Amino acid sequence: MPAIELVVRILAFAIGAALVVRTMLSAIRAFVLPRASNDTLARPVFRVSRRLFDLAAAPGRPYLFRDRILAYYAPVTLIVVLIYWIVLVALGYSAMFWAIGVGTMAEAVNLSGSSVLTLGFASSVVPGASLLAFSEATLGLILIALLIAYLPTIYGAFSRRELLVDLLEVRADTPPSAVVLLTRFERLRGLAALHEMWERWEQWFSELGETHTALPVLVFYRSPKPEHSWVNAAGAIMDTAALARSALDLPVDVQADLTIRAGYLALRRIAEFFNVRYDLNPRQTDPTSITRERFDEVIAVLESAGVPLKPDRDQAWRDFNGWRVNYDTVLVALARMTMAPPSWWDRPMVSAYATDEPELRDIGVSIPTDV
Known about the structure:
mainly alpha, 13 helices
């Protein structure tokens, strides 16, 4: 064998082996590694897939249509990623088969495809080919097994996330509203009962930050009900705690502070994974997506509902904005990224509300008069 051809085959074998190792490392990062790992090999698949789904769910379409389309984004992309990894492994082994002398490149590709899919219709008598074929078949089975084992973990975390999101509708209507939540608690249980809710949601935020960075595809798993969203639920709870601490005349409950902190830390971790920029140390006076006029509307509704309020409204606004700046940027960015339905801040505060889509008609954020 000429020296140049020998060097080319050695390089082909090394490149093929490196491609296989890199592909398996990508799968391990996605399926096995219990921490956030933004893998560059799989990232293009998610980006291309998202662009295709965004084209299918164009902004001009009705929300319910777009929601139905995007509900398939995460599950479909998971399957596509698995196929992508299998193809890369097959390509890597094709290079290695050709390097050891398994006929032409077409014959090497044929043997590699037969091996990775464990079909067994192709074989070779070249020394070492059988060992490569067995190892490739093993890796192909491992990739499929990883996805199968991965799905229960995803759906377990998804179910735990959606449990509190769904229960929030009972307490805060849809979309979840801090105004409805506070007035309903005042009428039914008293605002002191908020302490128990803060504790549960602090735990929810803690798990959210862990699962949605270790299993980032969960970020794009949409709620079973189109009008629900984990992003809106997170925002409503933090807004409720921020209002309770800034505007309500209540004994200080540090658990509300801890819930807000747990919330914005979780959202920031998720935002960092997706390279969302935000101010790590915002100032209390920095502007947010909530205006003073909108805040005053909220205060007026709470006052008419008989919720005890602090007399200094200017200080209440400064305190509320001081809490909101910690999570406003990442909350808005994640809502846009996941195409969440409009939050309660975007709905009329008192008057009846109806969309052009009958399935999403709502009573707005008016004061609840029932249980």
